Each structure stands twice: as structure tokens, then as C-alpha cells.
Amino acid sequence: MVVLWFVKFATRNKLTKTPSRHKAARVLYKGAQIAMASLQPNQTLYVNNLNDRITKQDLKLALYAFFSTHGTVLDIVCLKTPKMRGQAHIVFRDILSATDALKAGQGVEMLGKPMRVAYARGVSDYIKKLEGTYVMPLPDRAMDDSDDEGGETDAPRGTKRSRDAEEEEE
């Protein structure tokens, strides 16, 4: 049994569907104009379709070598987790450098695969720290305290008592 999925190809004027034998259907853009128009210019670039079979250090070095020619690169974040494999975020000092790098890097073959470059969705934590607007995220609470009935909430939980305290109670 052959299952056909449809891959959508977007151009400026029309959206067409063509059959594909891929497991998942995804939108492929012809040209960077559509991808660039959807996000606001930012100091951080999102790069995907990177080779995920090389080490993290080699990938960072290759990205730095390419993107540093277009402006000052402050930070490169690339993770090897299954969700972030083949993707990276490059933080530039200013928006003009990021825009120049976006235009120059779109579709360029890096380590055997053509890069897809777009502005990042949000502002990088590195930029927020430089501006002084960074706020540490609150840690998730493991247990819900709503079942406490007037008990002490500030008391530490799960701490061991010392032997001296046990002997005094007996």
C-alpha cells in the first residue's frame, strides 16, 4: 500500500499541492521573501536544515566562520537534542548585520546541505542580558500546594532529621 502525502509549494502568487512520498507534509518556501515577511527584523537569526551528523563544536565553528564576515557575532546556540537537531540561533550585535547575513546566507550550502535562514521569533536572552531587561524564569513547582490545609508552606520538605533530634524526641 502506497500512502501519498501532499507537499505544499508556496510562491508569491499561488499555493500548489504536489504528491510526495514523505511521511509528513510540510510547507516549503520558494524564496526567502515569504519567510522574511512573516517575522519582524531581529538581531537573532534562526538557521535550520543544518547537517546534524557533525559535532556541536565543528558546527559552531563553521557557522561563526561564515556569519562573522557579515557582522559581529555575539553568540551561537546550537543544541544536539532531538527536537533542536540541525538548527541554530546566531545573535548579532545589530539588526543591519543580521539582515545582511540573512540575505547572504539564504540557500547557501553549508556542510553539504543548503541553509534556510530567517529572523528568530523572539529576542535572544543574550540581548536581554546586555540591555538589562532579562528576567530569570520561575522554576516549575513539582507539587501543587492547594491540598495543604493551613499548614506551613515555607517549611522545607523531605529533609532528614539528625540523630540528636531523634534521641531528644524519645
From TrEMBL:
InterPro entries: Nucleotide-bd_a/b_plait_sf, RBD_domain_sf, RBM41/RNPC3, RRM_dom. GO terms for molecular function: pre-mRNA intronic binding; U12 snRNA binding. Residues 154-164 have a biased composition (Basic and acidic residues). GO terms for biological process: mRNA splicing, via spliceosome. SMART domains: RRM. The keyword Heme does not apply. Residues 138-170 are annotated as: Disordered. It holds the Pfam family RRM_1. Residues 43-122 form the RRM domain. Keywords: RNA-binding. The keyword Ligase does not apply. This is RRM domain-containing protein. It comes from Protomyces lactucae-debilis.
